[in-house]
Amino acid sequence: MDVLCWRKPGVCFRKLLxxxxxxxxxxxxxxxxxxxxxxxxxxxxxxxxTVVLGCAFxxxxxxxxxxxxxxxxxxxDTTQKDELILGFSGGEVFHYGSQxxxxxxxxxxxxxxxxDASISITDLKLGDTATYQCKVKKTPGIDTxxxxxxxxxxxxxxxxxxxxxxxxxxxVSLSCKSDEGxxxxxxxxxxxxxxxxxxxxxxxxxxxxxxxxxxxxxFSGSYxxxxxxxxxxxxxxxxxxxxxxxxxxxxxxGAVIGALLLLLLLLLLIxxxxxxxxxxxxxxxxxxxxxxxVASPISRSVTPNxxxxxxxxxxxxxxxxxxxGYHYQRANHSVIYKEQLMDIHKPSNYNLTIxxxxxxxxxxxxxxxxxx
Length: 372
Prior knowledge:
It is a single chain. The longest helix is centred in the C-terminal third of the chain and has 46 residues, at 248-293. This protein has helices at 2-7, 9-30, 99-104, 248-293, 304-316, 325-330, 332-345, and strands at residues 34-35, 42-46, 51-53, 57-58, 67-73, 83-89, 92-95, 105-107, 119-121, 130-138, 141-152, 159-163, 172-177, 186-191, 201-204, 209-212, 221-229, 232-240, 350-353, 359-363. It contains seven helices and 20 strands. The protein is α+β, with helices and mostly antiparallel strands and 372 residues long.
């Protein structure tokens, strides 16, 4: 062979072309079945939506066996078998797997044998997230296609609110918050009326907060917040107004003065109550003293024995029913009143005589009615 190629290179080249043609034809026969669907290998859909997983194919004339189509859920564990969920063979459709998925799963074409083995899954659930494989086989050709389905939760309708004062010159924050939704969630504020966002506005796409500094009347208007993720978006709208600026220093000063006046009024009320209580107690004490001193001394006949006894008491310096000067200093008007009463009931001096007419001793009574 080598000698022939050396002497006749044209003959050797023709033989080489024949060998390469045979190899090409045999390879083309084994891959004659071809899945032609194209698209992203990962499909993201929102919960509750419908998805179509494409699997269009073309069969070669050399593929003369029976058409067999299988859809399976690939197991993440390579040691486990894949789960067969839908099949087509002999012109019939076969459902496998769970009953819930079977109700929502079907071929998009009435006759998949015509070249379209795509499937549709309705009312998607979070549990439908998986990698799906389409296998089309027609002896001797065979081909497959894999696609990953990711079911996510779309954002819920956000809540728009105004945080802080809307007074002119102050800082005001617009808040936008969605309670549901697969992360990451992205927020965006836009102004619907009155032009673009204020030049002093700063927004955070991650938190949904729009901070407007030095708020003025020109910043008032309608604002819209849009929250979105990979599978959907929602919006909310609010109206921002402006209030006239308030003199906060004056309000604080007025509040302080009012508090001081209220405190003074309270102290004055307490002082009046104390004075009133002292006055009532004093009047009660004076009334008791007057009642004790109104009665006049007991009148009695003066006898020699009584005179002698009274004189004896005077000699010993015995004083009964003594009234201290404290009462007179405390209430002068009551003392004067008592003196007047004493003068009315004051008895006259007694002169005692013994039989025979000779005076013996003279007694007098003090204001209290006792002999001195």
